Amino acid sequence: MSDDTILQVKNLKTYFHVDEGIVKAVDGVSFDLKKGQTLGIVGESGSGKSVTNLSIMNMIPNPPGKIVGGEVLYRGKDLLKMPIGEIQKIRGNKISMIFQDPMTSLNPFLRISTQMIETIVLHQGLSKAVAKDKAIEMLTLAGIPAAAKRIDNYPHQFSGGMRQRVMIAMSLSCNPDILIADEPTSALDVTIQAQILDLMRDLTTRLGTAVILITHSLGVVAGTCDTICVMYAGRIVERGPVDEIFARPSHPYTQGLIKSVPRLDRITGERLSSIRGQPPNVIDLPDCCPFYPRCDRMMDICKKKYPAPTVLDNGCTTSCWLYNEEARS
Q: Secondary structure of the chain in the HEC alphabet?
């Protein structure tokens, strides 16, 4: 692990045992996160984005889920092997998470002050008075007007955008090394989405926090992230610098995602591109490329084996037989 690499995920596997079989929600995911870096994880619903990040936090409900393999190295220590007491000191402190819906993430029966102060006191060891001052400071930085008065309000007294600002303030109140944002703008309208993303970018840059951003929106990734991981059926099919991925996408799935984004420079009345078919059922998936039924460039080998990752000359890594030497031999 290099000096600036803060998190290393190696061959992570998380399976869910259900009546119908084994759901391989995460099946061999690997990536690195550097200090101050913003990493975007994109893919269709059910591709394994959220489960990957819940696995990093070791928050998979067991049963039915279980992390069956891999390592998650935070500053060289494997989070998956830590005792529960030790990892609880890291959750919310060194690694924080913003969930999709702020209304369900905040306790509706407790004041904002109670929820924020509890977190700061627990992880920072401050007195309640000092913790309240810190909470007010963070709410002010997050753009909450009259934070000193509104800190004693209940969640229902805030709008959706303001509740998400509260969640961002709470997540960053302990100056974490890593912030995991699981579709933090999905429940908000477009104008508020832009404000929230600008706020996250400003605060994380100011605090030097590394970010893992889970999203469906390639537009959000293009304007926010340094690196992108494209997930499909529990695996990362392509990863690399954002500029390179958008300029020269290699995997047919990534190409399809980018082509399906509406563009202002397209001819009026032109039909939007789409990826044919449906995402696969991930129960008992065979060990082959799961994208082949939807791929226009499918080869016979795609139905038999899953391709090993190939590093391309632009620095990106892709898992596709089109770029694998074994397919050509």
A: CCCCEEEEEEEEEEEEEECCEEEEEEEEEEEEEECCCEEEEECCCCCCHHHHHHHHCCCCCCCCEEEEEEEEEECCEEHHHCCHHHHHHHECCCEEEECCCHHHHCCCCCCHHHHHHHHHHHHHCCCHHHHHHHHHHHHHHCCCCCHHHHCCCCHHHCCHHHHHHHHHHHHHCCCCCEEEEECCCCCCCHHHHHHHHHHHHHHHHHHCCEEEEEECCHHHHHHHCCEEEEEECCEEEEEEEHHHHHHCCCCHHHHHHHHCCCCCCCCCCCCCCCCCCCCCCCECCCCCCCCHHHCCCCCHHHHCCCCCCEECCCCCEECCHHHCHHHHC
Q: Which two tokens stand for residue 9?
A: 């995920």
The Cα 299–Cα 279 span in angstroms is 19
> From CA 233, how far away is CA 43, in angstroms rounded?
9
- Four-way CATH pick for 5-94+174-262+274-328: 3.40.50.300, 3.40.50.2300, 3.40.50.620, 3.40.50.720: 3.40.50.300
Cα(195)–Cα(216) distance, rounded to whole angstroms? 18
pTM of the model: 0.90
Spell out the domain ranges in the chain.
5-94+174-262+274-328
- Among 185, 176, 242, CA closest to 210: 176
Walk along the chain (329 residues) in steps of 10 and give the mean pLDDT of each run.
Answer: 84 93 93 94 91 93 91 93 91 88 82 93 92 94 92 92 89 90 78 82 87 88 92 95 94 92 72 85 87 92 92 92 75
| Residue 212 tokens, joined | 């893992």
Please, which residues bridge with residue 32 across strands? Answer: 8
